[in-house]
Amino acid sequence: MKTIGGKKPLSFAGIFVLVAAVEYLIFYHFAPDLFTSGLIEVTAKMLHWTVSIFEKGVVLSGSRLHFPDMDLIIIYECTGGFAMFIFSACVIAYPSTILSKIWGHVLGIIGVFVINMGRLLVLSLSALYARDLFDFIHKYLWQATFILLVLAMWVIWINIFVEKKKSHKSVKAKVEKKK
Amino acid sequence: MKKLIGLFAVIATPLFAQLAPSESVPVGPIAVTLLAVGTVGYGIYRIGKKK
């Protein structure tokens, strides 16, 4: 299968910046309200459903979750959309087959969603049980953890979905040549 | 290779800091920038390693 993407470091970086900018414009800047509000609503509802397992008293109204001591407002930045733009742009820009890119997007969408829900759940639990730690967890701990987890996904994608497939193919080709 | 990664970081950091909407404390944009620099930096490293 044909490899698509920036085969040189500079072309990879260039394609990345271009794709990330286009995705930002399409899925954020010029995105219809239905898309952005829908994403926020889904995130808020999923979070409310998950938090309700631990605490029944949390009330959801629109994109706002009412906790006993504070409110959490879900905005677009809370949905993990920006991390997904970056991951997606990297997958598109990296030299790989279309199939690997599709797998990258499946892994990216599911992975970023799961990581983000984990982040929001931990934040909600801290809003419930450790209010004094909320700012630290929100602004520092989970930002760093989120970066590391998405970076890990990126490394896994390159090593398993791109390089491993290539090495399988080259081994097959060598075996066929010997025959 | 190191120069290229450094150049990308210099160009991309202000760009992504502008793209990501800021909050009262701009931790979000910084995180988005670090993520972009990290992922692209690793990508550049891997492409460079193959040659």
Strand order in the sheet with the most strands of chain A: 1-2-3
The share of residues in extended strands of chain A comes to 5-15%
Helical/strand content category of chain B: mainly alpha
Quote the average pLDDT of chain A: 89
| Structure class of chain A | mainly alpha
Concise summary:
Chain A is mainly α and 179 residues long.
Structural notes for this entry:
The complex is a heterodimer of chains A (179) and B (51). Chain A has one domain (9-165). Chain A is built from 5 helices and 3 strands, in the order ααβββααα. Chain A has helices spanning 9-29, 33-54, 81-93, 98-129, 134-178, and strands at residues 59-61, 64-66, 71-73. Chain A is mainly alpha-helical and 179 residues long. Chain A has a 3-stranded antiparallel β-sheet, covered by helices on one side. Chain B has 51 residues and is mostly helical. Chain B has one domain (2-50). Chain B has helices spanning 2-19, 27-50. In chain B, α1 (2-19) packs antiparallel against α2 (27-50). Chain B is elongated, with a radius of gyration of 12 Å. Classes of the chains: A mainly alpha (179), B mainly alpha (51). Chains A and B meet through α1, α3 and α5 of A and α1 and α2 of B.
Spell out the key features of this protein.
heterodimer; A: 179 residues; mainly alpha; B: mainly alpha; elongated
